[in-house]
């Protein structure tokens, strides 16, 4: 089946072409999903409220006393661009990790590299995972630490990161960039926008009974 085409303004999900805001640096390679959201906080029916538990064990000791961590620092309150290092989001495939980051307030993650499943789970939420060279990432982390109120601009379409007078060449995976820029990253919204095609496909499947392929309810007055 060919990919659906949408004209301007008809994308089923919000188009994510650019993310601008203040940054928050979390340093260290191989930060896994258990560090991002410990497993004991995953016993929830919905993802609501997960944001408060992001990096919980890195932020608090066993007596719930605060430890030294950027997510505890007042200067980063309201930051929406997370700047990390290599292999971020490795470990388990738990989708709770990007859910927790999103609910903390993160709209984009910039780093040296990401675990593939983590990046895919971020895409499902409309969160770009943008990569750049190690030296460029470390320079950005240094800048954000020194200038927590300064804006960082991520151009998803052009694949650049801009801060101060610096423009960094970045990379957004081709499939991710296309999905974000065209507004087709939300698979539920995409299926809803192509309901007729979904029903047609369902009818063609021998194991789907006809009574399970419902037509949309008629509008009042139709």
TrEMBL record:
<dbReference type="Pfam" id="PF00694">
    <property type="entry name" value="Aconitase_C"/>
</dbReference>
<dbReference type="GO" id="GO:0009098">
    <property type="term" value="P:L-leucine biosynthetic process"/>
</dbReference>
<dbReference type="InterPro" id="IPR000573">
    <property type="entry name" value="AconitaseA/IPMdHydase_ssu_swvl"/>
</dbReference>
<dbReference type="InterPro" id="IPR050075">
    <property type="entry name" value="LeuD"/>
</dbReference>
<keyword id="KW-0028">Amino-acid biosynthesis</keyword>
<keyword id="KW-0456">Lyase</keyword>
<comment type="similarity">
    <text>Belongs to the LeuD family. LeuD type 1 subfamily.</text>
</comment>
<comment type="subunit">
    <text>Heterodimer of LeuC and LeuD.</text>
</comment>
<feature type="domain" description="Aconitase A/isopropylmalate dehydratase small subunit swivel">
    <location>
        <begin position="14"/>
        <end position="132"/>
    </location>
</feature>
<dbReference type="GO" id="GO:0003861">
    <property type="term" value="F:3-isopropylmalate dehydratase activity"/>
</dbReference>
<protein>
    <recommendedName>
        <fullName>3-isopropylmalate dehydratase</fullName>
        <ecNumber>4.2.1.33</ecNumber>
    </recommendedName>
</protein>
<comment type="function">
    <text>Catalyzes the isomerization between 2-isopropylmalate and 3-isopropylmalate, via the formation of 2-isopropylmaleate.</text>
</comment>
<comment type="similarity">
    <text>Belongs to the LeuD family. LeuD type 2 subfamily.</text>
</comment>
<dbReference type="InterPro" id="IPR004431">
    <property type="entry name" value="3-IsopropMal_deHydase_ssu"/>
</dbReference>
<dbReference type="InterPro" id="IPR015928">
    <property type="entry name" value="Aconitase/3IPM_dehydase_swvl"/>
</dbReference>
<keyword id="KW-0100">Branched-chain amino acid biosynthesis</keyword>
<keyword id="KW-0432">Leucine biosynthesis</keyword>
<comment type="pathway">
    <text>Amino-acid biosynthesis; L-leucine biosynthesis; L-leucine from 3-methyl-2-oxobutanoate: step 2/4.</text>
</comment>
<dbReference type="InterPro" id="IPR033940">
    <property type="entry name" value="IPMI_Swivel"/>
</dbReference>
